[in-house]
Amino acid sequence: MTLALRLAAKGQGTTSPNPMVGAVVVRQGRIVGQGFHLRPGTPHAEILALQQAGKQAHGATLYVTLEPCCHLKKRTPPCVPDILRSRIRRVVIAMQDPNPSVKGKGTAALRRAGLSVTVGVGRSEAEELNKSYCRWMETGRPYVTLKAGMTLDGKLATATGESRWITSAASRQEVHHLRRSADAVLVGIGTVLADDPSLTARTGPRFEKLARQQPLRIVVDSRLRTPLKAQILAQQYRAKTIIATTAAAPIDRRSAFLKKGIEVLTLPAVQKGVSLPALLKELGRRGVMTLLVEGGGEINAAMLKAKLVDHIRLYMAPLLLGGQNAKGVIGGESPARLKSALKLHHMRVRSVGDDVVVEGEL
Description:
The protein has 362 residues and is of the alpha/beta class. It has eleven helices and 20 strands. It has helices at 2-9, 45-53, 79-85, 105-112, 123-129, 131-139, 169-181, 189-195, 251-259, 276-285, 297-305, and strands at residues 22-27, 30-36, 61-66, 90-95, 116-119, 143-151, 155-157, 184-188, 202-203, 209-210, 216-220, 241-245, 263-266, 269-270, 273-274, 290-293, 311-317, 327-328, 345-352, 355-361. The protein has a nine-stranded mixed sheet with strand order 13-12-11-8-16-6-17-20-19. Strands 2-1-3-4-5 form a five-stranded mixed sheet. A two-stranded antiparallel sheet has the order 7-18. The longest helix is centred in the middle third of the chain and has 13 residues, at 169-181. The chain starts with a helix and ends with a strand. 41% of the residues are buried.
């Protein structure tokens, strides 16, 4: 199962909105087939492993990280019939599929056919691997990671807004990998106006090359103040952009964005801003399973206040800015009592270049 999990992880960033799945066929202690799901519309991991095994699958054991599917509401045929035709004798499954169309049904079908089925081997590792898929299936919204680069005293930028570059090149390289793995990346209009970011995933020694895999770029902009020449609107042929706004946005500005081929998504307003829960529900409806928030203090505060953040990742540079007028990582108002502070769980601390990375779940 360890090998199956490693294989599944190779699909990171390409399988969405499908889960990452790996499969291994073992006969008499020897691996005779293996595979992983690469992207929607391509064969599932079980099918690839069985095809590689061929007739050696007869009487063998199939190890798979997710319950095999048995429904027809997808682009590819169900896996259970092929498993039965292969004459596999035993199936070991890491985790049950949270998809209501599959949940428990694939396992039941295999058992009804007389196969020996074991569920739960490597469950925690499989659930961690597909936590975005599980969250999306359970709530209909993406799994959200809030990422920020900051000084040791929690500052995103100087009082004048200077922020390039607080963190090291090694940290920035890791962030570009994060973007490649995410379905979408989000910022607020404040970040667009202050920093004019492109939010593309790039590679190369100086991050000058566009990566093959690009996230959907989202700007939360209730009054459509995004400049038409902003970098986040460029390179639409490789990385699409959506402007999330409200009905209060000027009609002429909407027309200007539409002429550039930029989608303007009108959502309900909350305290004169875009309803973030409504935005995430819409992204989930579109198949966005993983969302990376790279905004400034105000959008960070709004996402946290709405309880929409699942994971925090902070890149802390060995710098101190000080001053109450420097830009903090979380804006808005501070709670009056310590008991109202947000607490991270399952924290991890590591080094990247000269920086320290602190991350955890909310």
